[in-house]
Amino acid sequence: ETGVTQSPTHLIKTRGQQVTLRCSSQSGHNTVSWYQQALGQGPQFIFQYYREEENGRGNFPPRFSGLQFPNYSSELNVNALELDDSALYLCASSYRGGSYNEQFFGPGTRLTVL
Amino acid sequence: KNEVEQSPQNLTAQEGEFITINCSYSVGISALHWLQQHPGGGIVSLFMLSSGKKKHGRLIATINIQEKHSSLHITASHPRDSAVYICAGINFGNEKLTFGTGTRLTIIP
For B35-64, what is each residue's pLDDT tens digit? Predict the structure, then answer.
């Protein structure tokens, strides 16, 4: 196990609703990245948070937003859910301070939008 | 065009065979993750490397920086190695991972 946890493991929502996904980083890590993985596809980078600030964003609309807290846990919020938002959402934590920083993944939250 | 290209997309082999999965990447990517994903979704980091070779048990990863190419090898493959293997490039400075499309490996007993 990596020490990165995510909640909930599964979630079903309807179109137009809002959802909050949570990630608890591995101890000592200060950076968290969020990824969306649609069925049969590779993960796509949503955004990254470092020291509570967004530090890079992929090609996702503003209705995808996030937070990182002082304890380095993180939330991913998605507003106005669409059917295409159905996917596995993965967070990964790492420690920024060295050269290349290995990312450790959580088990994911599977979101289904009906 | 994806910055990270993997081959093959699918690979089926007999138990005990030597397995090689290849990954090519573009300029701007300075290190690679090799990841394993089992059905159900959880991703496990196998290796992160920016040069040379790393070995862990039956798994070996190599990277050639000049050729921008990396390989993941599995020796004495076993059915429990069946999974999707993904290489992901790291853009130094922004920490963003760019993922390959994955290789679905099936090891038949």
Answer: 999 887 788 889 999 899 999 999 999 999
Across the interface, do A48 and B41 touch by the CB < 8 Å criterion?
A: no
Instruction: For an interface test with B, give the residue of A31, A89, A93, A103 to mutate (most B CBs within 10 A).
Output: A103
- Two tokens at A9? 């493991």
Q: How far apart are CA B46 and CA A88, in angstroms?
A: 20
The SS3 assignment for A2 reads: coil
DSSP helix/strand/coil, A85: helix
> Cα A65 to chain center, whole Å?
10
pLDDT of res. B57: 96
Contacts of B104 (CB under 8 A, 6+ apart): B9, B10, B11, B84
